[in-house]
Sequence to fold (314 residues):
Amino acid sequence: MNKSLLVSAIILTLVVTLALSAKVQAQEESATVLDDIVVVARRSGAPVWLVQNGEATVILVGSLAGVPADTPWRPEALEAAVARADSVILSQSATMTLGDYFRLRRARAHLPEGKTTADYLTPEWQTRLADRERAHRRDYETRGLTWIADDLLGAQLRYRPGTGRSASDVVRDAARRFRKPVDEVGNMNGRHIDEAVAVPDEGQVACLTAAIMTNESGVEGVRARGLAWTRQDVPAVLANPREWAADRCQWFADETLIAQGRTQWSEAVGKALAGAGTTMVVAPISVVAEPGGLLDQAEGRGLDVVGPEWRPVP
Fold:
């Protein structure tokens, strides 16, 4: 081989070697940064999962609605993780007019004329509701089902410490501070929802029965849910009546809106996994970890899901 060809070959080899070395170093640095984000996020105590698809990475945070104020978690750790993410996806908003809102309040307040709670609840649940009435000296006979649920979960639960900031609130505030792009999953149409709320259905019954169970379990049940959340015991969170109530009473217990909300979450996570970069997604833990939820959907696509176990142990 002549000298010029030998020199060219050596130079080419050096260029390729340096390029491969740079690529490996970039991949290692990227992996290190990603690991740092996940480690920092998990220090918060909130359940966090990592899902990757090619150049796309989703850090999925299972948020708790109404985090008990005495739940020992570290919001500042989640804030620090937001600073290292590329973008954030948060929950839906709802749109309704002021007139819709006041009609909704009237519709929730009372059952249709001539109806009582006994027309919608089974004898067993009517008996358990009557026990709650006696315990709290309330008269729920003609009150709307979601109104009763709200009363049982709020004033009559008598959880003195109140609620602290949710993971969603923490991430939203941090994203604004660090100027991270924020997308909401979607916008729920709350216009004329009073028409649906005025007619009690299975969704409202499910909301009320969950509220009755939550009230029966009392303050300890609320605390147990918060502690299970920070201990990464996801099955225990999902099995807690307070979590059932949070899930089944959302969006005014309207089954159509609840189903639309879940569809929007699935589409948002699918879109993030089809793109590039690191996206932090903060979704209700029931939507994340329920059977057929976001984690099951990711596994169903053949993707690895790294994080706490979310299925009940047989």
